[in-house]
Design a protein that fits this description.
Blueprint: H1 14-17, E1 29-38, H2 42-53, E2 58-59, E3 63-67, E4 72-76, H3 78-84, E5 95-103, H4 106-115, E6 121-123, E7 126-130, E8 139-143
Parallel strand pairs: 1-4, 5-8
Antiparallel strand pairs: 1-5, 2-3, 3-4, 6-7, 7-8
């Protein structure tokens, strides 16, 4: 796909993959809630992603959203992304702009990120952290919801 290498999978043996001993981490991450992809044409991209996922794309506040079994993919155009997150530069389109991660505690993840030298800022009820330079452009959004 123009956005990059896209993969989806289904675990048919979840008990072997989601072992309790591997499900906790000091960062408190519980799972990927969503990712936002900046695309040139939301309708066109939504059609492709809907076919790929076998799921309907639905209008969202800023573009189109595709709900998955765990999380969702948000497709937005550059102007919508710039309005949502003006502090995150768009290097080119398409652009994997944000990864939203559900965590147990925003205060705990804020402390962990600060210890790693990664600054955070509030984003409504969530927490925003720009990628370190070595990871490129984009951001994480941490949420307890």
């Amino acid at each position: 796909m123009p956005e990059g290498r896209i993969q989806i999978l289904t675990h048919h043996t979840e008990h072997t993959v989601w072992q309790p001993r591997w499900l906790t981490h000091p960062n408190g991450a519980l799972g990927l809630a969503s990712m936002t992809i900046v695309v040139a044409d939301v309708r066109e991209a939504a059609g492709r992603f809907a076919r790929f996922f076998g799921r309907a794309a639905k209008p969202s506040a800023s573009g189109q959203s595709i709900a998955l079994d765990r999380g969702r993919v948000e497709l937005v155009e550059a102007d919508a992304f710039a309005r949502m997150l003006p502090q995150i530069p768009i290097p080119s389109v398409p652009f994997m702009g944000t990864y939203s991660i559900k965590v147990r505690s925003l205060s705990a993840i804020k402390t962990i990120l600060a210890g790693a030298g990664i600054a955070t800022s509030p984003l409504g009820a969530d927490l925003l952290a720009r990628f370190p330079d070595e990871l490129g452009q984009g951001a994480w959004i941490f949420t307890e919801r």
